[in-house]
Each structure stands twice: as C-alpha cells, then as structure tokens.
Write a structure and sequence with these properties.
CATH class of the largest domain: Mainly Alpha
Number of domains: 2
Shape: globular
Number of strands: 4
Structural class: alpha+beta
Number of helices: 9
CATH topology of the largest domain: Glutathione S-transferase Yfyf (Class Pi), Chain A, domain 2
Radius of gyration: 17 Å
Length: about 220
C-alpha cells in the first residue's frame, strides 16, 4: 500500500500541517505534493481528485487502484486502523478517548482564532492583538492543555507523553499561530508550543513553507 499526501501552500495551510504531522513523525513512507491554493492548479487538483476538494488529501494506492481521504480526522483514523502500533493515538482507553475528543473539538471549533489569526509560518507580528472572541478561544485551548496534564497522562513534552500523537498534530497549527502573533501564554502552554514547533517534522514543514515564493496577500497583513 502506497501513500501520497496532497497539501496546500506550506506557508499558510494549517490543515496541511496536520496531515503532514500525521505521517512524517511515524515513519510512514509517502510521497507528497504541494498544490498552490486558489490558483488554476488548485482547480485542476479538485477536478482530478473528486470528491476531494480540500487539503490535506491522502491518496492511498494498492494493487486494485486508488482512493482518497480528504479530511484530517479521517486520515488519522485510517492510519490508526492500518497501523495500530504506530502510536497515532496514545495508549490507554481513557487517554485515547481524551485525545479523540480534543481532536474533534479542535476540528470543529475555534472559528474566531482561525479567522482573525490565519497561519503564516514566514511571519511574526507584534501589533495584531486578539479580540474578545479570539481571546476566549485561546483561553479554552490553554485550559484543555492544562486539563490533559492533570488527568494522569504520562509526563513528557507532548499532550500524552514523550511521543507526539494525533492530538499534537491537530494543535500544531494553533501553536504556529501563537508564535506568528506572539500570543502571551501561560508558562506550561508556552513550553508545549515550543516543543511542537521544535519537532523535526514541524521544522521540515516550516522550512519548506519559508522557501515558497507564493503570496496570499490577505494573509500578509502589512502588505500594501
């Protein structure tokens, strides 16, 4: 079985960072291709890979053909099903339940944070401050991270111990936003953000994003 991960611009695509971190840290062999968002190339990608219309999209090929998974939570569950010993989810029933719940909330919530502070791995801003709704999202996320560490999960730099798991992959784009907009965090939250952004797979993604020449002007807030 072969995997190919389609991603959007690595400078901006938070969802693509999730997909990348569901594959690269776990030692899966896979190809990857970056599709330039909101371009003719993007339209061609959607036409060629229907019903997938979003990134990340995981293409799975076996002897009988290929199929697509175009949702990061579905990708996590598929990889866990195919590779149950890889560590996509943490060990222990309660820990796995907590990790899945965190991913689901991250997947469907925090719209103020996402809209007002889009991901941009190439920039750091000092002047953009969170409004009340965004601040509420930030507080909720910090409370979730603190809660995980009080539930008896293994000690370590990541939410569920020494190894990164799917829950960390889902929160990595949040960590990226916190750095880009220099969000003031609690000390434990900042340590977790630093650990996520220092992971070799995250650094690899960041480096690729910084090499891109494509610009989405509405995400470059100080562009004329």
């Amino acid at each position: 079985m072969q995997y190919k991960l389609f991603m959007g611009n690595q400078a901006y695509s938070s969802w693509s960072l999730r997909g990348w971190l569901l594959l690269r840290p776990f030692g899966f062999g896979f190809e990857h291709e970056v599709v330039r968002l909101y371009s003719p190339e993007w339209e061609r990608f959607k036409a060629a890979h229907f019903p997938a219309t979003t990134v990340p999209t995981l293409q799975v090929s076996d002897g009988s053909g290929r199929f697509f998974i175009w949702d990061s939570l579905a990708i996590a569950e598929f990889l866990h099903e195919r590779h149950p010993d890889a560590g996509i989810w943490p060990e222990g029933l309660q820990a796995r339940a907590a990790a899945r719940t965190l991913c689901a909330e991250m997947h469907s919530s925090f719209f103020a944070l996402r809209s007002s502070m889009p991901m941009n791995v190439r920039r750091e801003y000092e002047s953009i401050k969170p409004d009340a709704e965004t601040r509420a999202d930030i507080e909720r996320i910090e409370n979730l991270w603190a809660w995980v560490k009080t539930t008896g999960n293994a000690a370590g730099p990541y939410l569920f111990g020494e190894r990164l798991c799917a829950a960390d992959a889902f929160f990595a784009p949040v960590a990226s936003r916190f750095r880009t907009y220099r969000v003031a965090l609690r000390p434990d939250s900042q340590r977790y953000v630093d650990a996520l952004l220092a992971h070799p797979a995250t650094l690899e993604f960041y480096a690729a994003g910084c090499r891109e020449s494509w610009i989405i002007e509405e995400i470059e807030f100080d562009q004329a």
